[in-house]
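User: I'm putting together a teaching handout on how sequence relates to shape, and I'd like one worked example. Could you take Enoyl-[acyl-carrier-protein] reductase [NADH] from Geitlerinema calcuttense NRMC-F 0142, show the sequence you're using, and then write out its predicted structure as tokens right after it?

Assistant: Happy to. First the sequence, then the structure tokens directly below it.
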Amino acid sequence: MLDLSGKNALVTGIANNRSIAWGIAQQLHKAGANIGVNYLPDEKDRYKKKVEELVAPLNPSLIVPCNVQEDDQVQAMFAAVQEQWGRLDILIHCLAFAGKDELSGEFSQTTRQGFMTALEISTFSLTQLAAAAKPLMTEGGSIITLTYLGGVKVIPNYNVMGVAKAGLECSVRYLASEMGPHNIRVNAISAGPIRTLASSAVGGILDMIHHVEETAPLRRTVTQTEVGNTAAFLSSDLASGITGQTIYVDAGYEIMGM
């Protein structure tokens, strides 16, 4: 029933084979979507080579550089989408960053620059990419971002990323309201803690994962594939009535009080 054949999906944020974005890209491809990805450009094109090798089995028709802190690169990425595909159906936003120093210790010691960087990359970039995607979603579309429980509850060491995720989830609601009349749906997936390159910067991440495994109703944490399955569902017509929501894929941990 879940069929994304003929849909063009741009997946941002793939860093390696542990990335949640990688799990999502695989499941979108499995459902029949035409995949495009971005990579973070650097002087030696190290990320380009890694991403190209990783996504090769998905036969992506688009691999483009994009640093969301550079407006011209964002514009160039969506210009490439328009030139290659003509339209966009699915946008996956898996972009987040905070300096390692901001992800441990006391939240009140967050620096001005650290705060601004985290919010720019992790929060504002969703609005930035959604604005660029909107004109290309001529037949409607689905925009999906990744959030975490730390945006609504205090998680040790998550600190400024909690503020960033709170802003991200609020952005989802405002974007959903704006884009709904254009048949564009905007949702967030709140995944349980997964060992990724990004999460490894959070102090005590392994303790966090073990706690979820002991406490969550399913007595485990979740996999990239499970998050990818939910993203595929939200990208499909099966989720045509769902927008502005945060969907928890965390083995039920979010419901627990103690």
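A couple of points you could highlight for students: The helical segments are 20-30, 46-55, 71-85, 112-133, 160-179, 205-215, 224-235. The chain is about 40% helix and 15% strand.
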